[in-house]
């Protein structure tokens, strides 16, 4: 086996072991000794590929980024004939469903916000995360700006609007982890999230244009289709 192939395989073994340990123990409970043992390598080998524990943690959490981006593109391409508000609501549903399906990967937000807990993060890694987040926001920003060109939305600060939509989702997801906050919220996570998204978007809805379905109408249609089946 070539040296480059051996290095690639060692890196894959480290990531596979780290994925199991981090998702079971979380960052603070995990230790690199166990990662090395599961990977069948020395602990020193890990530092040949990753700067520190924090860098390895973020690398594991970031694995789903490309898959998220791919699926996001599919959602946007599939609903081009819908009203812009409904298109953004489809993105919001996808974001919610993706997070619920991969809750461990949402921890990347916690990790970046808590360097004082997990330790210094490599500058290159932070730059890559920032670029990825900007791409995610940029894709939906273009959707909003297309809605303005269609005459479905009024001119607005599309970047701030989309960034706020993402922050709203992240905040709701975080509070969903605490039972007392769920009780105080009352409504389901989906209801709270989509209701809030639509309320914000209706603030930039162009008057006199075609009326979007909105998230409640879409939900009612889906229920009716299910009953018909």
Structure characterization notes:
- The protein has 229 residues and is mainly α.
- The protein folds into two domains: 3-49, Homeodomain-like (Arc Repressor Mutant, subunit A), CATH 1.10.10; 63-228, Tetracycline Repressor, domain 2 (Orthogonal Bundle), CATH 1.10.357.
- 77% of the residues lie in helices and 0% in strands.
- The radius of gyration is 21 Å and the shape is elongated.
- Mean pLDDT is 82; it is low at 221-229.
Q: What composes the largest sheet?
A: none
Order of helices and strands: HHHHHHHHHHHHH
Q: Helix fraction? A: over 70%
Rg, Å, rounded: 21 Å
| Contiguous helical run count | 13
CATH H-level superfamily of the largest domain: Tetracycline Repressor, domain 2
CATH topological fold name of the largest domain = Tetracycline Repressor, domain 2
Poorly predicted regions: 221-229
User: Roughly what fraction of the amino acids lie in strands?
Assistant: under 5%
Structural class determined from secondary elements: mainly alpha
């Amino acid at each position: 086996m070539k040296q480059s192939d051996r290095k690639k395989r060692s890196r894959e073994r480290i990531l596979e072991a780290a994925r199991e340990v981090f998702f079971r123990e979380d960052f603070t409970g995990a230790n690199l000794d166990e990662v090395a043992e599961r990977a069948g390598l020395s602990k020193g080998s890990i530092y040949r590929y990753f700067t520190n524990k924090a860098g390895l943690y973020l690398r594991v959490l970031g694995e789903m980024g490309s898959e998220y981006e791919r699926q996001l593109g599919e959602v946007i391409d599939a609903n081009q004939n819908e009203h812009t508000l409904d298109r953004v609501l489809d993105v919001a549903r996808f974001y919610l469903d993706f997070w619920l399906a991969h809750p461990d990967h949402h921890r990347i937000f916690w990790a970046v916000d808590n360097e004082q807990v997990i330790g210094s993060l490599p500058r290159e890694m932070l730059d890559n995360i920032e670029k990825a987040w900007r791409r995610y926001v940029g894709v939906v920003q273009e959707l909003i700006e297309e809605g303005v060109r269609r005459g479905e939305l009024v001119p607005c600060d599309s970047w701030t609007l989309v960034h706020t939509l993402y922050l709203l989702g992240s905040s709701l997801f975080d509070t969903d982890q605490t039972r007392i906050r769920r009780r105080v919220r009352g409504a389901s996570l989906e209801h709270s999230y989509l209701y809030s998204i639509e309320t914000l978007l209706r603030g930039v809805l162009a008057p006199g244009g075609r009326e979007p379905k909105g998230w409640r109408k879409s939900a009612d249609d889906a229920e009716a289709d299910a009953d018909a089946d």
